[in-house]
Amino acid sequence: MSSPAAPPSQDWLRITQANQTELAERIKEVHALQREIESLTQRAQTDPKARTALQQLEKLATSDWEPMRQRMEKTMSRLRQQARPPTEEQPPTSCATPVASQAAIRRTYL
């Protein structure tokens, strides 16, 4: 039985590091998508195909916002739960999930 002042377990540290790595990868993907959207926005000013693609992207973004927001809230809740040191009642669990590739995101939204 561990006391409240006991150092975090190795499992908890490993899970926390995995969460940080996953979050960093997702942030990189978001930044890459932001750059692509900016580029598409600039091209849309002169290229009709780019304008059409941008309009489709905007339509998808607005229609998919609510489910995306709910998924993000669930993910953040799970990460907050796992960021706490484990107790005897709550053993650490892995949250490692595959990170969507940028190519898959491009196929879906562009």
- Radius of gyration, in Å, reads 19 Å
Give the rounded overall mean pLDDT: 72
Main sheet summary = none
Beginning-to-end CA distance, first to last residue: 53 Å
General form: elongated
In short:
With 110 residues, the protein is mainly alpha-helical.
How would you describe this protein?
The chain has 110 residues and is an all-alpha fold. It has a domain at 10-84. The chain contains four helices and no strands. The protein has helices at residues 10-44, 48-63, 65-83, 102-109. Helix 1 (10-44) packs across helix 2. It is elongated, with a radius of gyration of 19 Å. The N and C termini lie far apart (53 Å). Residues 95-99 have low confidence and may be disordered. Residues 90-100 have a biased composition (Polar residues). Residues 63-110 are annotated as: Disordered. Residues 66-76 have a biased composition (Basic and acidic residues).
Detail the topology: elements first, then pairings.
Blueprint (H helix, E strand, L loop, with lengths): L9 H35 L3 H16 L1 H19 L18 H8 L1
List keywords for this structure.
single chain; 110 residues; mainly alpha; 0% strand
